[in-house]
């Protein structure tokens, strides 16, 4: 009697990525895209150990005294002043259009990519596959970003998906937008029918401004101001940067403003470890908005202080021509 041996069918290449089949099915259901093309894209993506290493040591793990020194350097400040002066008309037009102070738009680019000089070396697809499919601590977030990347229309990206480069977290362009931020906040400011956050300065600047505006930026509002606690100041439990107490209440609890502030303004208090000991700051709605870009209060403070330094330099007297 002949024995019939079971057929051994090779697993499809995309089985190499855990959960890839399910992901592709979801994207196909939502968009109608060709599953073969989606699988071909994902087949070409590689798990990168260097990405897993990078996410385990974020800059935000440093104390404020060290973190500040990364971004508040003379070179970064001077480059921001030059960038503002070079693009003043466009910046001030977009700032007025969205109600966002132009120096904060510039400061975001300064902190994120040194004004477009360093937009990231990792393939975005590799980054999001690595973190979405191989990094359990934040797999839900990054898998959603990977799915969004695969679902974005072609005219929302600076090039083909498999050619895009960015940060180890999959953020791309001068403003380091994640795919969901491209979907929700990026704009075609130059009106060419294409959102390009890598090569179109109007799109780049307007997208950052729109991000702030949509998250509740208050035109002309304060960002942060120094606070001086007395020896009996109430210890506050601050979970995030949401303004939750009035300045008047915080004063009653022992936090004195160094400058005049509206007693009825809603604020929070942030504590940072400075070079000379703890620093206390009142932070307002616009500070909270910056933390929607990056949740770290230190990030928001770095953006704030860089923006202030840029504005001070821009408003200074232009050097005389020799």
Automatic annotation (TrEMBL):
Residues 22-308 form the Transglycosylase SLT domain. Transmembrane segments: none annotated. Pfam families: SLT_2. InterPro entries: Lysozyme-like_dom_sf, Lytic_transglycosylase_MltB, MltB-like, SLT_2. Coiled coil: none annotated. SUPFAM superfamilies: Lysozyme-like (SSF53955). It comes from the Bacteria. Signal peptide: none annotated. This is Lytic murein transglycosylase B. The gene is mltB.
């Amino acid at each position: 009697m002949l024995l019939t041996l079971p057929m051994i069918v090779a697993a499809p290449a995309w089985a190499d990525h855990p959960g890839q089949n399910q992901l592709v099915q979801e994207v196909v259901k939502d968009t109608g895209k060709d599953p073969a093309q989606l699988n071909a894209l994902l087949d070409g993506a590689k798990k990168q150990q260097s990405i897993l290493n990078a996410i385990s040591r974020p800059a935000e793990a440093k104390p404020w005294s060290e973190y500040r020194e990364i971004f508040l350097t003379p070179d970064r400040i001077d480059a921001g002043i030059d960038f503002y002066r070079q693009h003043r008309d466009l910046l001030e037009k977009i700032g007025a259009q969205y109600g966002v102070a132009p120096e904060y738009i510039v400061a975001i680019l300064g902190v994120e990519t040194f004004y477009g000089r360093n937009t990231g070396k990792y393939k975005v697809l590799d980054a999001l596959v690595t973190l979405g499919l191989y990094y359990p601590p934040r797999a839900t977030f990054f898998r959603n970003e990977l799915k969004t990347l695969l679902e974005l229309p072609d005219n929302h990206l600076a090039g083909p998906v498999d050619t895009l480069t960015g940060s180890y977290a999959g953020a791309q362009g001068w403003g380091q937008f994640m795919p969901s931020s491209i979907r929700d906040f990026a704009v075609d400011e130059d009106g060419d029918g294409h959102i390009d956050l890598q090569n179109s300065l109007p799109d780049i600047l307007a997208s950052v401004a729109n991000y702030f505006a949509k998250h509740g930026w208050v035109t002309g509002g304060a960002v942060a101001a120094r606070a001086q606690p007395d020896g009996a100041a109430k210890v506050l439990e601050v979970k995030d940067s949401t303004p939750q107490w009035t300045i008047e209440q915080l004063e009653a609890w022992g936090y004195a403003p160094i400058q005049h502030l509206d007693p009825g303004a809603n604020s929070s208090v942030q504590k940072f470890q400075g070079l000379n000991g703890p620093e206390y700051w009142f932070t307002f709605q616009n500070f909270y908005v910056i933390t929607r870009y990056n949740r770290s209060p230190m990030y928001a403070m770095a953006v704030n202080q860089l923006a202030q330094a840029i504005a001070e330099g821009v408003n200074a007297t232009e050097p005389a021509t020799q």
